[in-house]
Amino acid sequence: MSNHLYLWLLLLLEGLVLPEIEVSAVEIFTPSEVVAVNGTDVKLSCTFKSTHPVSDQSLIVKWNYRPPNSQRETSVLYFQESSHPPDAGLFKNRVVWSGNVAKRDASITLLHVSPTFNGTYTCQVTNRPDVQGRDGEIVLKVVQKASVSEIGMLLAVVGGSCAVILVILGIVMGVKMYKKRQEDMDIEEHSIGKTDLY
Ligand SMILES: *[C@@H]1O[C@H](CO)[C@@H](O)[C@H](O)[C@H]1NC(C)=O
Ligand SMILES: *[C@@H]1O[C@H](CO)[C@@H](O)[C@H](O)[C@H]1NC(C)=O
């Protein structure tokens, strides 16, 4: 009998405790991929939801970086009460905090990106006592401006071809119209000759 009671008590406790754990997670939102042009500044957007009030004292944001095909993590920026950018390594003087604690925004901006910035950026947010949820992950691709001028060149080639085709079409039409006019004149002369017969 007391065993039964114990079981009920356990179930009751579980019912009270489990949902509490489930809702107490930080939800993080990021784009999955960002493409940036070599030499420009690029914002890596990260916003979050927390079931607990957010304040400068409760919030910790960690941005980390993994190069392509590597699991080695490097710190990009650490935020607690204020921004703590790294004082050495790839991201020294190349990252600024672009977030807003009150707006649940933990974004950063990478400055003057180069192709060596290619890789995966993770946004990790903890808002005590909220346990951390799944990290946000952004794959950054830094492309050369050349790809833009390649598109421009392609457009120029297509445009040029169109112009050439139009000119050829114009000449063909002109020749056809000229020939038709000649034929019409021939027919007219012919029928004039015929009416003369009557
Ligand atoms: C673009 O990247 C190359 C390396 O691939 C670098 O040498 C060059 O300076 C960069 N250009 C700009 C505008 O940052
Ligand atoms: C970076 O990514 C771009 C786009 O995928 C690629 O064209 C380029 O070769 C990469 N550069 C490096 C250094 O990984």
UniProtKB/TrEMBL annotation:
Q: Which GO terms describe its cellular component?
A: plasma membrane
Membrane topology classification: Single-pass type I membrane protein
On whether Disulfide bond is a keyword of this UniProt record, the answer is yes
Q: Where is the Ig-like domain?
A: 19-139
Q: Where is the signal peptide?
A: 1-19
Annotated keywords: Disulfide bond, Glycoprotein, Immunoglobulin domain, Membrane, Signal, Transmembrane, Transmembrane helix
- Intracellular or extracellular location(s): Membrane
Q: Please name the GO terms of the biological process aspect recorded for this protein, alphabetically.
A: cell-cell adhesion
Query: What InterPro entries does UniProt report for this protein, alphabetically?
Result: Ig-like_dom, Ig-like_dom_sf, Ig-like_fold, Ig_sub, Ig_V-set, Myelin_P0-rel
Keyword DNA-binding applies: no
SMART domains registered for this protein in UniProt: IG, IGv
SUPFAM superfamilies given in the database record: Immunoglobulin
Membrane-spanning intervals of the chain: 151-175
Could you tell me which Gene3D superfamilies the record lists for this protein? Immunoglobulins (2.60.40.10)
Q: Name the source's superkingdom.
A: Eukaryota
Q: Which family does it belong to?
A: Belongs to the myelin P0 protein family.
The name on file for this protein is Ig-like domain-containing protein
Phylogenetic placement of the source organism: Eukaryota, Metazoa, Chordata, Craniata, Vertebrata
